[in-house]
Amino acid sequence: MAARRPNRNKTVLVVIAGVVMLAITVGLRLADPPFVAAVRELTFDYYQRLWPREYQALPVRIVDIDDASLKEFGQWPWPRTRIAKLVDRLTELGAASIAFDMVFSEADRTSPARFAESIDLGGTPDAARVRALLSRLPDNDTTLAETLVDKPVILGFAALTNKSGGLPQPKAGVAFAGTDPTQILSPFASALTSLPKLQEGASGAGGISLSHADTGGVVRRIPLLFSSGKALYPSLAIEALRLAQGASGFLVRSTGASGEADTGRPAIAAVRVGAFTIPTTADGELWVYYTPARAERYVSLRDLFDPQRQAAVRDRLEGNIVFVGTSAVGLNDIRATPLGGLVPGVSVHAQAAEQIIAGTYLSRPDWADGLENLITVALGLLVIAALVATGPVPSAVIGAVLALSGVAVAVFAFREASLLIDPIYPSLSALVVYGGAALQQYIVSDREKRFVRRAFAQYLAPELLSKLEEQPDAMKLGGEMRALSIMFMDVRGFTPISEMLAPQDLVHFLNTLLSPLSDAIQLQAGTIDKYIGDSIMAFWNAPLETPDHAALACRAALRMREIVVELNAADAFGFKAGHKPIQEVQIGVGINTGPACVGNMGSDRRFNYSVVGDAVNVAARIESSCKAVGSELLVSEDTVRAAPGFAYLEAGEIPLKGKSQPVALFALAGDQALAATPEFAALKTQHERLIAAWHAGDGWKADMALTACRKAAPDHLATFYDRFADRVATIRGGKT
């Protein structure tokens, strides 16, 4: 019965493990939990770190309420009258628009009337007169509101998730083409706005809130539009652009508009403000493409009021969009960017305006997620296929090359088209798939190796067994036809030997003889089939294929003969020392080469790796003919053809038991080195004459050739030619 291979479904199990891991990673990508999004966005951050936007001298400046300005004008918050002076100064310097990255949501506590209420002047008549005098002075907020009128000033507002605030006063008209943007954008509950009188005086209102989609506290996107559910409001950046261009409103394009692809869900495609059309994400956000920090982008607010810097300040601010914000650490408006540094929050809005003017956009296309999922699946399947086809190390190299190629393509897409494509998740997914499939392959291979060692440890040399463990697919268990070289070895005269030895001595004799003979077989890559008393059955070319199996069998036989000679010379069996009637041991070895069926045979619980077939029977008959032929080593004609170059001597065609046709046999006299000597060449010439005369029935010539052969033959062929003498005698009528 053929034993089943434990790794019969090895490939299937590896593929299943890989596909399961691939399904998990693809499902995780489709769910897109925060940590997956964080990895993807970190990849996009590194794009910008390696290839940031190149700074250009564009008409965008930041008036910075820096530490020097706070030192000059006092701690924040400043009186609104100073803000009014700032607006007047910027207007005088020719600012195209003035955008405040701040909210003036509370009344100025330094206004005269509020100041009077906050101090204790007592109940004296003078106190009443002081309060009356202060209350008649202009209100600071009113002063600022009046200053804002007819000036291109934008006040910021912050979107809130609760209803504690109000709504900004609309300043710009918003038109749309396609789906109503208020049905697409998530509405804010309320907004933190500046005082109503300030909003009334301002020309614009812009949102300063940042994207909720960003992870890790890094500002990567800013909303360009905000929705209250009923009305739309612009961000600070595009409102500043609108006023700088003198535009009256915005045009929003969304799915459903002419020329816009239907993505399957409502989405915003672009926002147009004046001469600029800005591509957006589906949620109406802009990916900010940063430059490294540049000092020329900033103007210290202190310098605006420094008489010695007037000309330089005017050159830098005239005709520019001016964002007013702070870099002072104590005012807590510092943001992290993809470049890895910290910048004032106002810089985010200013850089957004810069890239809009420059027309330099980052794009995360609608099809990017689908493409990345497709790459994830394709890369995972390729890794599984490579692992099954080539093994762990080559497939790891293939996977690494594919992953690096994906990274290279993604980098090229960013450099050439500013596309944000994530190559990292597909690569990590492929690594997970490889790990799962490789682990399964290791488990199956380890089980397979244990099976191989259990099944073949008794048959094979350790070196061959290790090779078989590494190449388990080289064997086919369960029976297969294969060209084999089969050897049978038997001890000549074993019955008398067994009779003259005690049982324990007989066991010692067999172990002493069979151990080195077995080593000789295994050193020549032979597989020991079984021990049958004093006999060994072995074969070559299974379970591992060995193309020169016939030559290996012949070398093993020659070495076995040498071992017996060495054991006899050393009296390893103790026959001479024990004065046994038999002093030396002789063996007979028969080798045949031919097709046979090889495989595990037996029951499901107990089996042997063995070989059966006519070629096996012939090998056994050849070995049993060694005594009659007089040669210790006898091979078939098929073996001679399969292993040319050895020192062979034809032994004639001898009928074998169980065979209808006689089989040509050859004595194996030595290896290729002996065959190449002049002495053996001379012997072979005389031997061929002997064979020719014998076949011709010419007793006289046969006798002459036999005499020449005996003179030229080495000692171990003496018995071989003695048996030939008997054959020659038969063709001479019994005369020698």
TrEMBL record:
Guanylate cyclase domain ranges (all copies): 485-623
Looking up SUPFAM superfamilies in the UniProt record yields: Nucleotide cyclase
Q: Which CDD domains match?
A: CHD (cd07302)
Report the InterPro entries cross-referenced here. A/G_cyclase, Adenylyl/Guanylyl_Cyclase_3/4, CHASE2, Nucleotide_cyclase
Pfam family example for this protein?
A: CHASE2
Which GO molecular-function terms appear in the entry? adenylate cyclase activity
* GO biological processes: cAMP biosynthetic process; intracellular signal transduction
Name of protein: Adenylate/guanylate cyclase
